[in-house]
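sorry for the late reply, my laptop died twice this morning and i had to redo everyting from scratch. anyway the thing you sent over, i finally got around to it. pasting the sequence first so we're on the same page, its 162 residues, then the predicted structure underneath. double check i copied it right bc i was rushing
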Amino acid sequence: MKTLDYLHLNASGAEKTVNSLQQLLADFQVFYTNLRGFHWNIKGRSFYVLHAKFEDMYDDAAEKADEIAERILMLGGVPENKFSEYLTKARIKEVSNISCGDEALTNVLDSLSLLIESERALLSEASEANDESTVALMSDYLKEQEKTVWMLHSYLSGDCKK
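ok and here's the structure:
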C-alpha cells in the first residue's frame, strides 16, 4: 500500500496539492534567503530591533520550509532541493544589498502578500481534495502571517500624529 492509501486521499488531488506545495516551498526558500540578507545588512536607528526580528523571521521561514517539504513527502511527492530550481519556480524574487529598514520591511510585506495569496489558493485546493492536514497547516500559516502583516504595517506607519 502507498502512504496515500493509509491517509485515504486520492492520488490526483494529492498531486495537485503537491504541485502547489512545491511552489510554496520555492517561495519560502527565497524568502528565507532574503531575510538572512536583511538580518546581515540592516543599518540605522532600528538596527537592534530589526536585526533580531529578521532572525526570528528567517528561523520561522526555515521551519515552515521544512514542514512544507515533509508534507510533500507525506503526499507522495519529492520536495525540490536545488536553489536553481527554486529561482525558476518562486514568485518571490531574490534581493540583495538592502540595508534600509523601511525598504526591507516593505519587501517582507510584499513577500508575505504573495505567500498569503498562494496559501489561500492551496487551502482551497486541499479542501477540495479532503486534505484536512494541509488545510490546517495553511490555516495556521495564514493566522500568523496576517498578524505579522498588521504589525509590520503599523510599524511602517510612522509616529503617531496628534
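The chain has a mean pLDDT of 95.
thats about all i looked at so far, will dig more tmrw
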